[in-house]
Amino acid sequence: MLFFSFFKTLTNQTVTIELKNDIRIRGILKSVDQYLNIKLDDVEVLDLAQYPHLSSVKNMFIRGSVVRYVMLPRSEVDVGLLEDATRREAANQAGKAR
Amino acid sequence: MSFFGFDTTLPRDRGRGPGAPKGFFENSDPFAQVALADKFVDGDAVDFEDTYDGLGDQLDDDQDEFNDDTFGGGGETAPVGRDFDFFGRTAGVADVIGEEQVRYSLQNPQAAPAPAQRAAPATAVPAESTSRRTGYEKYSEPGYIPDLQAKSSVWTQKAEPTPAPAPAPAPSRKIMSLEEVEAIEAQMRHRGQPIGGLPPQQIPQSMADLYQRHPQHFPTLPDGFPQLPPELQAQLEKGGMPHPPPGMPELYGGPGPAMPPGAPFLQNNLPPQNMPPQGPRHAGPPQGQRPQNMQQQPPPPPSSRAPNNGLPVITNPQQLMHLTEEQRNTYLVEDAKRAKRNHKIFLLSRGNGLMTPQDKNFITRIQLQQLVAAAGNVADSDPEAVLAEDFYYQVYSQIRGAPRQHPHQPLGHFAQTYLLQTGNRLGGNRHRHPLQGADNHMQRMQQQVQRAVEAAKAKPKNKQLIIEGSLGKISFSNAKAPKPMLNIKRPDSSEGPRPKKVQSDLSLSDRKSILTNIERVYSALMSMEDMERTMPPPPEEGDADAIQEHMEWRQKLQSLNQKLWKALKVMEPIVPNSTTPHPFIAFLSHPKGKKAIPRIFRHIDQEQRVTILTMIVVHLDSLDVVRLAQSIPGEAQPSLAVREAIDLFSLAVMPSLLQYVNEAPFNIIIGLLGLVIAQTHVQSVARTKVGLGILTMLLSRAELVKEAGQAPERDWQQWVEKFNVLFDTLEPVLADIFPGSINSGDDMYVWQFLAAVGIGASPEQQQRLVIAVKDRVMETVGYSKSLPADMSSQRLGNVNLFMRAIGLDVELLG
Questions:
Q1: What is the number of H-type helices and E-type strands within chain B?
Q2: Interface pTM (ipTM) of the complex?
Q3: What is the pTM of this model?
Q4: What residue spans carry the Low complexity bias annotation (chain B) (predicted)?
Q5: H or E segment to which residue B600 belongs
Q6: Is the confidence at residue B331, as pLDDT, over 80?
Q7: Which of B397, B592, B595 is closest, CB to CB, to A9?
Q8: Which residues of chain A are within 8 Å of residue B522 when distances are taken between CB atoms?
Q9: Residue B428 φ/ψ, nearest 5 degrees
């Protein structure tokens, strides 16, 4: 649940999402769920000339499985906390595996 | 004599002697077989008179009005149709009859055993054709489970125990409850048979029979029904097929006794034109329409019927003829509209009554369980579990204030909230259904969900299900434990990484083991921080339990502290001239090691802090930030990575050290300065920012102690000795401690150091100091003149730090 927990803190931030088909979309992250499906608002497609069919799309729902990268605003990430959260997650996982 | 030698005498010609064979229908004693059978039932003969309840005697013989309809009497001369195909018709509704019997027995459990007993005589009475199959035979089979129907009445409270049927004088009527009529009609509709073609009294015969046996039960309508309005009651009294007000069973099948009689019925009390017409059939709405009319659940709101109000009620096509053209048009339009609407309702209502409210609740419960299982645990009321699952988000939102705009609830509370919401929604309905059942359902559901979740948590998860005989397997997954795509066997922890561990113990300072150490420190830190959160409230006087709790907590914290201390490896023996750095210094050489220091300092005591500080001071010139920061000739400044490390050290480690030093006793300061001089190469240490920073720290602390007059004379003497040694050592390199060239920027820390030295120095030392750095001062002052005003003043301010410390000012330099 770490990623879910993490992305939840990024709601209402502008993120850029690169899909597995190379489309890159910048928009405001409205919400995210456990499957890391993403809802974007005020969408703007980079390299729009290549994807004219997306020119009128204003918001979208992206299935989590098609996302390749999510580019985040650095200032919104608390690295130290994230490190600790990762440690906890690892400990949890190890605890479960045993 | 016949040709083939057969007996050719006709039966009528045969003798009628007792030995003569009889025709099939000529059995003289229909009960003979029963009597015969009774002999075998261990002598317990059943007397027919005993078992026959005499109900047949109570038959009401004067209700003959419909006999003509039924048997085609009267003046009708129509060709003989299939009106007398009783068997066919009975067969057509055989299922219904069976169902009705099951239903009745469920409703009326006491009645069940009686018919079984009655079965024996019944088989022998040819007149009661339908009671040959009583419908209860199945119950004699041990494993029989009745075909359960989604009858709402089944779920309601049981009927008051009916007293054993007694020959009561109550008038018996051959009418059915509305519910039964409805059920039969639904059944018929199912088979696509037009309702109208069904002679009303045929099907219910057996039911009427049943009810006749329980006269006092029957006249009161089945439980769950409110009091009927008088006109309907009257209609029922007349006998014949009553037309039920639409939607009755669905609406009122639910809990009965709690309902104030009559009140809810008002809703269904339709204005007359919506009642099914009572006149001859053909005057009614088209055939297909009627059943829908009956099904229509909530009565249409009055407003929709409003336009009709201005018109006379049309019950007969003749009436239509007398209307004006306009009225007729309006009527037809209305009619069409109504038909359309009814059709729509019909389409929507196909599933009506398929599920009882209880069924729906059951489904909702399943859905909720799914939801809860997917989303987390309802029982996440304890913050620990939430924190474990959702650590980053929880802490992040605490740190950065309340989450923006849309109020996220913590995950675990989601399900709880949802449950509450549904509770509210149902509560909103309460004015329509003044039922206590509703609340109970929700409560039960909540409890059940919670129990289900508890159980799910408790029981070890079965990861997959293999249904017997199937080829595939079903894996369960949820968001937290997704379906594993790969199934990799973990090596048993006893065999796997063991050999390596031995190796890592051998070399304490290879990168990997250092990193492992750091992680150990962090995990100890985190558990200590967790412990801190769970600190019990400070015990009050005399509260033994609280004190005990507190003691235990402290003990745990202490053991964690020991764990942390061990992981830090500060106490590892110092090996002089060793090529590998001390483990603690190695720890500090990693960024995350440096970052851990402030957190570590929060959780250790003063003694441990001074140990760490001593460790750092002793190893000052082997610290990465000192070792790598030596300015190499030809390069203006150390590499980017080193600069970052230095910045991090200054930001993370120095404040903690400074904080400690500011509280440290003077003798420790003296000792530390002695260590710097004795253990390290002071001249090279002084060329680095971190080294100078630590020296500044010690010097300024000593100065503060002196100012405050806390320093005993003997200590002070000791300090001055050390200081003199330091000064002498540093004097030759004072000009070189500045970083790079004059325009390289940040040299404030150097001026701070010089200021600290200057304050503590004797006048003679101050002279030497000025001489040593005079060039740099002049250069800086000159250089700052070429800078913009703010930068210039900043640079001059730095210089002034030092100048003021020795009683001068840049202004004097002109």
A1: 37, 2
A2: 0.86
A3: 0.50
A4: 109-127, 285-296
A5: helix B591-603
A6: yes
A7: B397
A8: 84, 87
A9: -60, -30
